Amino acid sequence: MIAGSAGSFVLRATDGAARRGTLSLAHGEVETPAFMPVGTAATVKGLTPDDLRAFDTRIILANTYHLWMRPGRETIEALGGLHAFMSWDRNILTDSGGFQVFSLESRRELSENGVRFRSHLDGSQHEFTPENVVAFQEALGVDVAMALDVCVKLPAAQAELDEAVRLTSGWAARCAAARTRPQTQLFGIVQGGLDERARERSARDLVALDLPGYAIGGLSVGESREELARMSRFSAALLPPGKPRYLMGVGTLPDLFNAIDGGVDLFDCVYPTRCGRNGRALTRAGDLNLDNAQFVRDARPLDETCGCAVCANYTRAYLSHLFRAREMLGPRLLSYHNLAFLAQAMAEARAAISEGRWSGFRDRTEGFASTGGPEPAG
Ligand SMILES: [Zn+2]
């Protein structure tokens, strides 16, 4: 195990359980709470690094499973690591690949050592182990690497949750022991489904490893909004106050605000970009579906309070036209707005926590509860 670390987390303010912090990583500081745009295959779909910088994105997420399959470790290493390869000079967090592999279901086989699976691209056999996913993420040169975990689909039997926690704890210890690169921070992932005792056991095992940060995994996988809020708050309270807490796979405003209220700092989700590709705009008044006939002659911007470049320049009518005409600019502009909109919501949340007015801000934004309907497919 390596000693010391390049990263640090400073808690700037708290308001109730909500936290305002600064996470220092090898490619700069991340002000929290923060939403991390998802760049699955080393690209946030449709957006350039300049776009992401325009709304002050400090960290993005990329997927180990997808990059392992294509273009592969050797290619990315030969081109100078993931930052150079994709021309992104700010922070990158990679997931461990566990979540993707577990969603393959019939194509995978779990053992004490790791998980064997077949590629969705060509059927070739691969195995993820705690050691090789850490080596892969370090080879990419990322700022935050995630430990390999076992993610269980809900609802799940008690025995399955317990076994997932047992394996996840053992694998996290092996991930920690496998680290060689001080610039890459390793985060562990708390599992345990909706079972409080399993969550407690999982958090206790991971906290004993004294990792630089902790994620709350195994949620946003089919439970209700209330269960998600309850369990993310319960899990956050089990984690040390001086370390960042990351709730995986959450990206609608009501879910983000609930989790911030429960003490979570970091988030990621494909929701804003997937919606952007499917004609769904995130706004303060709820999600707008641009397919809807009411927008054909609507001269207003997507959201009148949004300060993004799309809202400054384009009408709902024009964006609606782009989607009807299947023009590629439509998905691009809408993905830009959706991510910029979430970035602004996070900045407002940070200011509210800093200024001790979080609960008023949270209650005023209850109108956001109408957003985040069923996720569009694709
Ligand atoms: Zn906008």
Which helices and strands appear, and what pairs or packs with what?
Elements: E1 8-15, E2 18-25, E3 28-32, E4 34-36, H1 49-54, E5 59-62, H2 64-69, H3 73-78, H4 82-86, E6 91-94, H5 98-102, E7 108-110, E8 115-118, E9 125-128, H6 130-140, E10 144-146, H7 158-178, E11 185-190, H8 196-207, E12 213-216, H9 225-236, E13 245-247, H10 253-261, E14 266-268, H11 271-277, E15 280-281, E16 288-289, H12 309-313, H13 316-324, H14 329-354, H15 358-364
Parallel strand pairs: 4-14, 5-6, 6-10, 10-11, 11-12, 12-13, 13-14
Antiparallel strand pairs: 1-2, 2-3, 7-8, 8-9, 15-16
Bound molecules: zinc ion.
Residues 302-303, 306, 308, 310-311, 337, 340-341 line the site of zinc ion.
What would the keywords be for this entry?
single chain, 378 residues, alpha/beta, three-stranded antiparallel beta sheet, 39% helix, globular, disordered N terminus, binds zinc ion
How would you sum up this structure, described in words?
This protein has 378 residues and is α/β, with parallel strands linked by helices. Helices cover 39% and strands 17% of the residues. It is built from 15 helices and 16 strands. The chain has helices at 49-54, 64-69, 73-78, 82-86, 98-102, 130-140, 158-178, 196-207, 225-236, 253-261, 271-277, 309-313, 316-324, 329-354, 358-364, and strands at 8-15, 18-25, 28-32, 34-36, 59-62, 91-94, 108-110, 115-118, 125-128, 144-146, 185-190, 213-216, 245-247, 266-268, 280-281, 288-289. Strands 4-14-13-12-11-10-6-5 form an 8-stranded parallel β-sheet. Strands 1-2-3 form a 3-stranded antiparallel β-sheet. Helix 11 packs antiparallel against helix 14. It is globular and about 60 Å long. Mean pLDDT is 94; it is low at 1-5. It binds zinc ion. The site of zinc ion has 9 residues, from helix 12 and helix 14.
